[in-house]
Structure prediction request, 206 residues.
Amino acid sequence: MSSFDALVEVCNRSLSGVQPTSRVDKYRVYVHLDTDGAWVGAGPALPPGLVAKLTCAGSVAPVWETDGLPVNVGRSMRIVPDRTRRLVEDRDRGCRYPGCVARSYLEVHHTIHWKDGGPTDTWNLICLCPYHHDARHRGEFLTSGNADLPDGLAFTDNRGHRITIGRSRPPDDPLPGPPDGRQYEHPIGEPIQHKWVYFSPPSKTA
Prediction:
């Protein structure tokens, strides 16, 4: 038995011990529903027959709204709740940085930082790829505006110039490799996505 098979077996046994069995979630897929239909993530509309089956046998959790906008958590929570994260990811469908085409490995960022009084509300949250998220915190660009509006965000560089088309992906310069004897090995053999990983040189005190 491989390490992956062993992990699957451990997970199955753990789930099988949950009581009652009707509440065991072995597989979970979040489907967005509204009056226009249903979809998964950034995918196309689901067939009506599949939607009917999902709404018949699946668990439905409503998102309460006020004036057409989801109720937010404001300053009561710094970490973005899963229900809010799903709404932001579905709204943005990818990194919001101008010109970026990244659609996976997204991170949710407060446009007005929490430490500066920014709320955990959808208008103040945007999806950024890891590269642009890191660049934002390095001060390479600024964001402002209402993220709930299609054209409500403004991106400016650190000199105040408006950014309209940015670099669509991280730089292609070769990245430094890990130290000798510390080669990354994925538990099930999948390749590492180098464009999302940055290796720092070992410290002199190491």
Summary: Confidence is low (pLDDT under 50) at residues 167-173. Residues 73-171 form one domain. The two ends are 37 Å apart (CA to CA). The chain is about 20% helix and 15% strand.
